[in-house]
Structure formats: C-alpha cells, structure tokens
Amino acid sequence: MYKYHCLNPISDAGISRFSEDYQETALEDSDVILVRSANMHEMQLPDNIKAIARAGAGVNNIPLDVCTKKGVVVFNTPGANANGVKEMVIAGMLLASRDIVGGIEWVEKQGNASDIGKLAEKQKKQFAGCEISGKKLGIIGLGAIGVLVANAATHLGMEVYGYDPYISVDAAWNLSRTIHHINDLETIYRECDYITIHVPLTDGTRKMINEEAIRHMKEGVVLLNFARDLLVDEEVLVEALKEGKVKKYVTDFANPTVAGTQGTLVTPHLGASTEESEDNCARMAVQELRDYLEHGNIKNSVNYPNCDGGICVDAGRITLNHKNIPNMISQFAKVLGDAGVNISDMTNKSKGDYAYTMIDVSTSIPESVVESLREIEDVYKVRIVKGE
Ligand SMILES: NC(=O)c1ccc[n+]([C@@H]2O[C@H](COP(=O)([O-])OP(=O)(O)OC[C@H]3O[C@@H](n4cnc5c(N)ncnc54)[C@H](O)[C@@H]3O)[C@@H](O)[C@H]2O)c1
Ligand SMILES: O=C(O)CC[C@@H](O)C(=O)O
C-alpha cells in the first residue's frame, strides 16, 4: 500500500487516478506529498517521504536543497496551468486599458434609477480607455505561459517583443514567427507599452524589476505580474505609480504593499484557479508520483534528472538518489557483485550536482545489500522499487 498526503486541496480529477493500492494518510505516515502553494520551508520532512509533487509550475514554496539532500524527488507540472494564466494576462491587459471595473461599479451604484440609460451615456466618458491592438507588448520569460501569451497577444493585434536567454527548443518551436526575439531587457523596457513577466522566482530573478529597470521603461507603461510578487521591487513600483511613470500594475499577488494602492489591479492568486488548470495539474502530479513510486521513473522533476526505465520486467529494481561525483557506480556494482546479485540493466542520469541510478537485477535483493548501499557516502536514498 502506498500512502499520500495533500497539503492543499487537490482536484479529484487527479486524486481519483490513484489506484486502490493508494491511501491518503497523515503527513508522518506518507510516502509522497501533493502540494499547491502551501509554504513548506519551515516544515520538518519525515524520513519516509520519497517525493513531492507540486500541482503547478512554481516551486519556490518548497525547500529544494533540503529535499535533494534527503533524496526526495520534487516534481512540478510544466504547462498544465499555462492556459489559465494566459487568459488572466489577457484580461489584465484589457482591465488596465479600459476602466471596465470602474464602469461596472458605477452602474451598480445607480441601483434601479429610471434614467440610468441616459445617465450612462453622459457619464461613460470617465471610463473610456484605449485598445491593446497596435500596442507593443514585452514578455520576459518565454516558457509555457510566456509563449501562450505571446501568440494570443499577436492574434489580438499587438506587436510582441520576447526576452528569454534560456528559451527551450520546444518553446521556440511553439512561438509565432512574428514575435521579435530580443536579447536585452533594455529594448523591452524602452519599446514596450505593456510588459508582462513570466519567469520563476529564484535568487537570480528576485527583484529583477527594480528601480533601474523601471527608470528605463516608457512613461505610462502597464506592468503585469502573474509570476511572483518578489520578482518586483514593489516599494519602488508604488512610487512609480504615484509619479505616473507606471500607469497600472496588474498583479496576481495580494500583499499589504499593493492591496488598495492607487494604480494597482490586484487579484488573489487566481491565475491557475480554473477547473481545467486544477484538473490538468492534479492529473499530471498524480501520474508523476505513481510512475516514481511504482516504477522508479522520473519525469518533470526540478531537482533530479529524468529517468525512464519503463516497467521492470526483471526480478528486482533498486534506485539510488546520490551526489553526481566519480566512483559511485563502481561502489554500487561492488556491493551487488559481492552479494552475488546480478545486474541486468543499469541507467545513471545526472542533473547538476545530483544523480539518479536505476539498477535492474535478475535475483532477489537481500536486505544487507540495501543497508550496504545506504552506507555509501553521498548516497541520499536507496529504494527497492521491486523485488523485496
Ligand atoms: N499566478 C499563477 O497562478 C501562476 C500559475 C503558473 C505559474 N506561475 C508563475 O509563473 C512562472 C512561469 O511559469 P511557466 O509555466 O511559464 O514556467 P516555465 O518554466 O515554462 O517558463 C519559465 C521561463 O522563464 C525563463 N527564464 C528563467 N530565468 C529568466 C530570466 N532571468 N530572464 C528571462 N527568462 C527567464 C525560462 O527560460 C523559461 O523559459 C512560474 O515559475 C510561477 O512562479 C504563476
Ligand atoms: O496552485 C495554484 O493555485 C497556483 C499555482 C501557481 O502559482 C504556479 O506556480 O503554478
């Protein structure tokens, strides 16, 4: 029986894909964790945890270093909620361009006034705005969301400038040919009427929209942030809103600095809150966990390499999460050889400083072998996937 624990509500479209061999349990008893935005940084991770699946894209709520050194594989669900966010970004650009919200509120205030139609015609000019068609949109980060926003904005008549020095081949293939590929952020800042940011929050991207960046932007620019609030120096941004340098700040992250501040349009982290996105993320997350628990396969991990050994057809399968340093494989082979365990297949993959080894064997695996493998320095986790 495998055991899972959910730190946030996870769509039943995914949970229902756990077979009868799975049971929801308390954190301390579980093998794997499903999470959305719950902050895990202060959490004590029980030793039995083997994997965490983030039903979403951003993993800044998960202590990756701690997990990696405990041999805990962290998955996310790339692209599964990208369409939901894309639609919010388009809505954000429209809401920032025309005072639709102000207009709706005005009508609500009139109640059932009999002359409301006449009044509306008189008052409507205060809610007028501009169209997005023909304007320049700068997109920072051309991943799953950035590409969808770029293509949709192009179809809405915008001229799109895209910046992503690390763009993946897949993303590049999916990008409309009409998009200007920009190699420096200054061009985006100088040229664009709307700028939207779609990069992960890391030490390298924290506060990338700072005083200097804003200084280079066009007067009256609209800034959209559906990625993470800490990407923007919001203290500086609020000043820029007061001065009119930035016309509107559309953000999906409510916090005391921006909530209720003049010039902001703030939503409560709604980007991925659609039935479709929640279902897609949950389905992908559960699939990743099952493939890892049942077969030892890794797909879409942010801290360990992809590894696909399919279904084990031999007597046993052992997996090891370890440091990516010389002499590890020979130590594993020696332990198995000394115990008379024959290796029938072996895969070793690495990602940066960390590696994952999958060994299929043609005989059963004695407990003493597992213990010896665990004793090897810089081995973080040893798992018998099959053949105990
Ligand atoms: N508001 C929401 O509900 C919501 C939903 C999904 C994702 N997000 C946030 O949006 C982020 C992006 O999501 P995604 O699905 O597009 O992720 P993704 O991984 O598909 O794309 C991120 C892109 O950013 C690029 N990048 C990284 N550093 C960069 C830099 N310094 N400059 C320019 N580009 C850089 C990467 O090369 C990649 O192409 C997530 O990390 C998450 O924080 C928010
Ligand atoms: O789970 C959510 O609602 C938000 C997800 C989003 O922030 C993400 O990074 O994918």
TrEMBL record:
<dbReference type="Pfam" id="PF02826">
    <property type="entry name" value="2-Hacid_dh_C"/>
</dbReference>
<comment type="similarity">
    <text>Belongs to the D-isomer specific 2-hydroxyacid dehydrogenase family.</text>
</comment>
<feature type="domain" description="ACT">
    <location>
        <begin position="317"/>
        <end position="387"/>
    </location>
</feature>
<keyword id="KW-0520">NAD</keyword>
<dbReference type="InterPro" id="IPR002912">
    <property type="entry name" value="ACT_dom"/>
</dbReference>
<dbReference type="Pfam" id="PF00389">
    <property type="entry name" value="2-Hacid_dh"/>
</dbReference>
<protein>
    <recommendedName>
        <fullName>D-3-phosphoglycerate dehydrogenase</fullName>
        <ecNumber>1.1.1.399</ecNumber>
        <ecNumber>1.1.1.95</ecNumber>
    </recommendedName>
</protein>
<dbReference type="InterPro" id="IPR029752">
    <property type="entry name" value="D-isomer_DH_CS1"/>
</dbReference>
<dbReference type="GO" id="GO:0004617">
    <property type="term" value="F:phosphoglycerate dehydrogenase activity"/>
</dbReference>
<dbReference type="InterPro" id="IPR036291">
    <property type="entry name" value="NAD(P)-bd_dom_sf"/>
</dbReference>
<dbReference type="InterPro" id="IPR045865">
    <property type="entry name" value="ACT-like_dom_sf"/>
</dbReference>
<dbReference type="GO" id="GO:0051287">
    <property type="term" value="F:NAD binding"/>
</dbReference>
<keyword id="KW-0560">Oxidoreductase</keyword>
<comment type="function">
    <text>Catalyzes the reversible oxidation of 3-phospho-D-glycerate to 3-phosphonooxypyruvate, the first step of the phosphorylated L-serine biosynthesis pathway. Also catalyzes the reversible oxidation of 2-hydroxyglutarate to 2-oxoglutarate.</text>
</comment>
<comment type="pathway">
    <text>Amino-acid biosynthesis; L-serine biosynthesis; L-serine from 3-phospho-D-glycerate: step 1/3.</text>
</comment>
<dbReference type="InterPro" id="IPR006139">
    <property type="entry name" value="D-isomer_2_OHA_DH_cat_dom"/>
</dbReference>
<dbReference type="InterPro" id="IPR006140">
    <property type="entry name" value="D-isomer_DH_NAD-bd"/>
</dbReference>
